[in-house]
Specification:
CATH architecture of the largest domain: 2-Layer Sandwich
Distance between the termini: 49 Å
Order of helices and strands: HEEHEEEHEEEEEEHEHEHEEH
Radius of gyration: 18 Å
Mean pLDDT: 91
Number of domains: 2
Largest sheet: 8 strands, mixed
Strand order of the largest sheet: 4-3-5-6-7-8-9-10
CATH topology of the largest domain: Fructose-1,6-Bisphosphatase, Chain A, domain 1
CATH class of the largest domain: Alpha Beta
Structural class: alpha+beta
CATH superfamily of the largest domain: Fructose-1,6-Bisphosphatase, subunit A, domain 1
Number of strands: 15
Helix content: 25-40%
Strand content: 25-35%
Shape: globular
């Protein structure tokens, strides 16, 4: 079934695969660090990967703009805005852990309309147009049918530097007693896509940025899942998310004593 965003999705997949091939090529190389933070790392390859993505997308759609983790390009008034995370899972990538991805979403007049998340090491490409059929390498995916916490595999972020550490650790311990397993991948976009594909069941994080989850949100919601975002601040870029397969009693499970 055709969509007005088909050409945009094609360009997003091309850009994600282009950047993914670049990152895979450099995966075993020595990586230059632009900035080392207490709990994060900024690599030269982050910027170079975003430049590849932005160059491809803006060449295909010069009227669009870029909102990216590594900076913005184009007019803020553009009707079409790409939301780009060139390496979601930078710390994993830096340490040689092959769990990271390229994440590209498109926003049209403030509404998320498509998402592409590409894992270059597993060569898995998750895609969706809002309201359409989500795909993994061209095959349909959907969330799990698990409806009980004791059956669930979940990602619970527990905070380190955002002022929520103590509460986050309590929440982590509280949920861990209720579920089958807790897994922490180190990539928000892949975690959400894993929920969309029925591999995981829920994800809770108190500190996340729009580019970390925008593309995967489209894919997750198209797959039948749910995501709630609570912005921190007026710009709407950072905040907290609760995401799940739409069946688990997640909010009840999160209530601390």
């Amino acid at each position: 079934m055709s969509s007005p965003y088909t050409a945009y999705l094609t360009a997003a997949v091309q850009a994600a695969r282009l950047a993914g091939a670049f990152l895979r090529e450099h995966f075993y190389s020595i990586k230059l660090v632009d900035e080392a933070l207490a709990h994060d790392i900024k690599l030269r390859l982050d910027k170079e990967s975003q430049q590849l993505i932005a160059g491809h997308l803006l060449a295909a759609f010069p009227e669009s703009s870029i909102l990216g983790e590594e900076g913005n390009e184009g007019s803020e008034a553009a009707g079409y805005q790409w939301i780009v995370d060139p390496i979601d899972g930078t710390v994993n990538y830096f340490y040689g852990i092959p769990i990271f991805c390229v994440s590209i979403a498109l926003q049209h007049r403030g509404e998320l309309v498509l998402g592409c998340v590409y894992d270059p090491m597993q060569q898995e490409c998750f895609t969706a147009v809002a309201g359409g059929q989500p795909l993994l390498n061209g095959r349909p995916i959907s969330v799990s049918t698990r409806a009980q916490m004791r059956e669930a595999v979940v990602f619970i972020g527990h905070g380190t530097h955002d002022g929520s550490g103590e509460t986050g650790i309590r929440r982590f311990a509280h949920i861990s007693k209720q579920v089958r397993k807790i897994r922490i991948l180190g990539s928000a976009a892949l975690t959400l896509c894993y929920i969309a594909a029925g591999r995981f069941d829920a994800y809770v994080e108190s500190r996340i940025c729009l580019w970390d989850f925008a593309a995967a949100r489209v894919i997750l919601e198209a797959a039948g899942g749910r995501l709630e975002f609570e912005p921190h601040g007026e710009d709407g870029i950072k905040g907290a998310i609760v995401a799940w397969n739409g069946l688990l009693p997640l909010h009840e499970a999160l209530q601390l004593d």
